[in-house]
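Quick one: structure for this chain?
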Amino acid sequence: MRLLITRPETDALPLAETLRARGHEAVIEPLLTIDYLDLALNLEGICGVLITSAAGIRALARLSGDRRVPVYAVGSASAATARELGYRNVHTADGDVHALADLVTNSVSPDDGILFHAAGSTLAGDLKALLEAEGFTIFRTAIYHARTATALSDTAADVIAAGGLDGVLLYSPRTARTFVRLLRDAGLEEHCRTISVYCLSRAVADAIAGLPWHAVHVAAQPTQADLLRLPGL
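Got it. Here's what it folds into:
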């Protein structure tokens, strides 16, 4: 199948290799561009770092050389990125922000100290509120910004218009909403009838409702491993 990958380029490249190894043709169309922010960051007194995206741990690694701090990651992909960057004590929730909150409450005591959420400027779910309700002190600051695309590339638009796209992989509600908006802006809504959508979560699937997709598939759990187990992938 010819599949559109909408992840930021750093994450899209290894995913494209995985899909090509399975016999698919991968078209990389990043709908988010990550801008890392330069700011002073002091992790003194922090007992753990909360990571809700791979971009978050990459941004943190640029700002702090401390690789000893425990990392609590929302999913396996962000946990793997943390390990690749040299973090030694990495835990993964393999789920969403609610699963991450559960992992933290079962692993850390509020008395252990402050938890730092390495966040982007746009949040999906309020991890801070979930943990503060359990008595934790959360320091959250945006250390990166994810910009949404303003138009489909000519390559992607031409493939869709020609009926040559079999499927698209969507990882977040924000990316899903962006894809729908860009399709409508380009007048390509009717071409959705031949496109299957592979969604990381039900929230992602809800964000694409209203267009006549060929099929919509939702991962059993919000992890890339479960996404890649969907029919056809």
